[in-house]
Structures are given as structure tokens and as C-alpha cells.
Amino acid sequence: SMRDTFKANLAAAREAEARAKEAYDKYMKEMKEAYDEMKKSYEDKQGQLGDNDDDLAAKRSQLDAAQTQLAEAEDFLSKLVDMCAAKSKQYEERVALRAQEDAALSEAISILFSDEAFATFGTVSATSSGVALIQLRRSTIRVHRQHAAMSSDEASFGVRRLRAQTFLQAAQADTHGAPLLTRILAMLQANNP
Fold first, then answer.
1. How many Cβ atoms from other residues are within 10 Å of residue 42's Cβ?
2. Is 127:184 a contact under the CB 8 Å cutoff?
3. Cα Rg, the chain, nearest whole Å
4. Residues 74, 76, 79, 84: is their CA dihedral positive or negative?
5. Mean pLDDT, the chain, as a whole number?
6. What pTM was estimated for this model as a whole?
7. pLDDT single digits (tens) 11-60
8. Are 184 and 112 in contact (CB under 8 A)?
9. CA atoms lying within 13 Å on the CB side of residue 25
């Protein structure tokens, strides 16, 4: 009958509605869990972004400081390289000058010990009279303030003079050349009191 049909349709509709409600509730529960999970992930990511921004700002500050230090170090290095080049050039010039002085002194000593020098100095009365120059004592010379401001030429002359005296003292120690040098020194003393 029609009533049974309506009852059957009503029961089927209620059963379909219950299944749809159950599916809807299940779907809403899953979506809420997914939403909660996504919200938690979003909040975690936002926190990480904030931390990363802080780290990035700190790293940028460190980078700026490191770049400043690098620029200062490179500037110092360029100045140091220039200073080293200048010092190296000065050293090479001093070495060349010293080599020339040593060569000139060696040549002067070889000339003084030559046979011609012996013959020449033998004809001079200061060297043939037997006058000898002997060092009796050594004294220390104090440098006064005005001498401390000597020019480099004066200082170079002093170094050359000291080297010449060293060569002459070494030659005086040689018994073969001692009479000759003694006569030369006596002659120089007589001409340059």
C-alpha cells in the first residue's frame, strides 16, 4: 500500500540522511584535524621566519664588519707592500754603495802595497827617516747633540773612514806591510796635523 511505501521511503531517506550526516561529521573531523595541523605548521614556520630574520640581520651586521676589516687590512697591506718595496730599494742601494766602497778600499790597499808605492814612499823624507806612528791607547769619543744631526753624507763619510781605519789596522798587523803603512801614516800626519 501507499502507506507502506511512504514508510519505506521515509526509512530509506532517514537511513540515507544518517549515512550522509555520519560522512559529513567524519569529513568535518578530518578537515578540522588537517586545519589544526596546518595552523600549527603555519605558526611554527612564522616563528622560524622571525628567527631567520634575526639571524639574517646579525649575519648582515657581521658581514659589514668583516668587509670593513677586509678593506682596512687590504689598505694596510698595500701600504706595507709600498713600504717594503721602498726599504728593499734603499737596501739594494746601500749594498751597492757598500760594495763600491769595499772595492775602492781594496784597490787603494793593493795600490799601497804595490812595488811602485814602495819605490815612491821610499823617496819621501817622512817615510825614510824612520818616524813611526804607534797607537798607545784607545779612547771613546762621545757624540754631541749637534753631531747627532749629521747628514747622511757625513754619516757615510764616517762609515768609510771607519772602514779605512779597519783596513789599515789589519794591514798594520801584517809584518810585511807594517813599515810601509807606518811611513804612510807618518806622512799623512805630517801633512794633516
1. 10
2. yes
3. 53
4. negative
5. 77
6. 0.36
7. 999 999 999 999 999 999 999 999 999 999 999 998 888 888 888 999 99
8. yes
9. 6
